[in-house]
Amino acid sequence: xxKQDDATQLLPDDLLAEILGRLTPRWLAASRxxxxxxxxxxxxxxxxxxxxxxxxxxxxxxxxxxxxxSVFFSRPSTRPIISGMFTDxxxxxxxxxxxxxxxxxxxxxxxxxxxxxxxxxxxxxxxCTEIKGVCQLSNYLMYDPTISSHYEIFQIPCALDRYxxxxxxxxxxxxxxxxxxxxxxxxxxxxxxxxxxYVREGEAAGTVADMALSFPYDHFNGVYWxxxxxxxxxxxxxxx
Length: 240
Known about the structure:
Layout: H1 13-20, H2 25-31, H3 36-44, E1 60-62, E2 71-73, E3 96-100, E4 103-106, E5 109-112, E6 117-120, E7 135-143, E8 151-159, H4 169-172, E9 175-176, E10 181-187, E11 192-198, E12 206-207, H5 208-214, E13 222-225, E14 228-232, E15 238-239
Antiparallel strand pairs: 1-2, 3-4, 4-5, 5-6, 7-8, 8-10, 9-12, 10-11, 13-14, 14-15
């Protein structure tokens, strides 16, 4: 956009702030990146809620293979702001399974280290028949505070390592990921697990036997980005 074509430069700051203030947090955050003038207006009038979109890093959690709980590292100046010790507000010394936009997915619940809040969730139902016995399940957290205060937890299957579990010969030749896949999903809105069906787009990444030989990991990394969950799975493919 050329300077002479930018009509917003003709608007008084108060009027522009009134217009920007009517945007949802997601689009307000995007507008902050348009130009320095808009960024100055949004920041000086504190239009973005800092509790929803924190602007500083409180610390980093590390998982080590020989530790059953996560280790928290932070600068001394951040320690009064965020609690890295789960024993302060959770039932036991916990381990981070996943994280998303300030919330931590732990064993058996979701924690907010900034507010020291803990929300346990019930045991999930057993996996569906088409994947039971040939996979293990990993939990992933989906949370966007600019859209809703509620979050969801997805159980994503990954094929078992044949060194850890005996596979039925018929399962060896099954396509992976299966289609349809019925996943367990927990919603903080209903406080219940439900089953959701997903159909694979495109070709299968391989067979169950191919997946079982690829990566003997216990948990695959995932990220929630722009409304979709991406999980790095076996055989070096990504499931969206």
